[in-house]
Amino acid sequence: MLAGRLVLLTVVAIVLFGVSAMVSGMAKAPPPRGPAAAAEAAAPAPDAGAAVAPEPGAATEPVVPPAARQQPEPGFALALLGVCALISLAVAPTVLHSRWGGWRAVLALAVLLYGQMTVLSQAETVVYLANVSGAFLGRMFVFGALFSASLAAAAVLILGRIRDGAGSVGAPLPRMGWSWWAWRVAAVAVLHVATYYVAGYYLAWKNPVLRAYYGGSDPGSFLLQLKAVAVGTPWMIPYQFAQGIVWALLAVLLVRMLAGSRLAVALTAALLMGVVGPIQLLLPNPIMPDEVRTTHLVETIVSRVVFGFLAAWLLRPAERSGPPQDPA
């Protein structure tokens, strides 16, 4: 029964992806260029000057020929099937163990999907890709809103939680004061910075192909690499902390949404956060070579799984004992 619903949700997700891409205009939008592409377009002829190495921590992208941008990427359809299937598997536990049903479940899930798949990921696009037009970003945000909202509604409907209060809602959570939440949100933001840079260095930057792609080098240790980032781009660590605040707020919404023990909630959060954002890197694209893309896929999955589990564990108040009842 559940397997059939997951298959149906996967098929519906593929359809919604295509419809959202067409309505938003993303189906025909060319991808943005990275810093290297912008530099290539503005640079003098090769014999007019020597090449300049990028700053430590600066991201660069290879130039993609215009013709390549217009051709469909090989294996895209199969990759899209895998993306939608894995997103369906990741979303299902969140919906099935939600304290809420109906419109509350749809709204919460839509915010969680949109925040991870569009808001936070496109914030990275603005930082790491040059010459990103406002039109492209606008299409991306419209596409993300359409896909996230429609997928959330489809998941709640197909998984049987469309009626508010359907299924068990769990014991009520205690009301915690602002100070309790404030220091935990700050701690989760620091956790984001830590997992982001640790996974980035040990799972991505150690790959020489990735370093060559970004035009950087390995200084020999994590602390030296962190120092290079702080010196070369001093705004980057505060920026990632601000990103961490947004991640923490999404985690707060998720742990308030879910019923179950602290361990069950943490595992569900690890699955949702470890899949719905990073899994988009399964889709081939004309900007990022396959080895770089798969390296980032592994890096971000590990980073987000660890972050999701620890963040939910830290933010989850213990449930009060007593018979299940609807939360106030």
Structural class: mainly alpha
> How many DSSP-defined strands?
0
Helix content: 55-70%
| Count of runs of 4 or more consecutive helical residues | 12
- Multimerization status: single chain
Q: Which H/E pattern describes the elements? A: HHHHHHHHHHHH
Strand content range: under 5%
Query: How many strands, what sense, and barrel or not for the largest sheet?
Result: none
Please tell me the total number of domains: 1
Low-confidence stretches are 34-70, 322-328
Mean of the pLDDT scores?
A: 82
Described by the principal axes of the CA atoms, the overall outline is: globular
Instruction: Work out the radius of gyration.
Output: 21 Å
Distance between the termini: 32 Å
Characterise the protein shown here:
This protein is mainly α. It has one domain (2-315). Helices cover 66% and strands 0% of the residues. It has 12 helices and no strands. α5 runs antiparallel to α6 (134-158). It starts with a helix and ends in a 13-residue tail after the last helix. 33% of the residues are buried. Mean pLDDT is 82; it is low at 34-70 and 322-328.
Give a concise summary.
The protein is mainly α and 328 residues long.
Task: Offer a few descriptive terms.
single chain; 328 residues; mainly alpha; globular
